[in-house]
Fold this protein.
Amino acid sequence: GAGVSQSPSNKVTEKGKDVELRCDPISGHTALYWYRQSLGQGLEFLIYFQGNSAPDKSGLPSDRFSAERTGGSVSTLTIQRTQQEDSAVYLCASSIGQGAYEQYFGPGTRLTVT
Amino acid sequence: TQLLEQSPQFLSIQEGENLTVYCNSSSVFSSLQWYRQEPGEGPVLLVTVVTGGEVKKLKRLTFQFGDARKDSSLHITAAQPGDTGLYLCAGAKGAQKLVFGQGTRLTINP
């Protein structure tokens, strides 16, 4: 399909391990967002990429979290030394531009830290 | 600080009833979007409102943007079990990134 895809769909990891979450945005979308959602709550903004501009990292909760976007397409969110409070659904979205454009979301990665 | 406050946070009603969900802010937005999220999926856009006072209808759903563009409401007429989900409002200020409310979890009981 042509939608946003994320992998893995589920990830269970032990406390202290590193994890990588992947997002494949819709082709041609220049903006890519990462959000975190806990227990069906609202969306917590993490990081935002727009074209070749420096990413907006203002939502990253700690320096254990980082993300990159290679070639303006695929993005990887990395969480180092995972903690139990990192357990959540991590959602990726892409849009054709920044601001008010519709965001298309992937199905999310459910991360469980034991 | 939550720029967009949604109320109620949880709502459980019987099939056939009407309901209204509110999205309020002290800030002015250039546009406001409403999304619906079903379990195990990402949010999906329902509507975007841009003009103060604008009303948009999507079948049994009516969306309104406040005159001052600081608030919005979603009214559902004759709710159906298929309306169950998490409803999220999101405000945009020009080219800045969207700001999401905390969501309203709606359950429609048959």
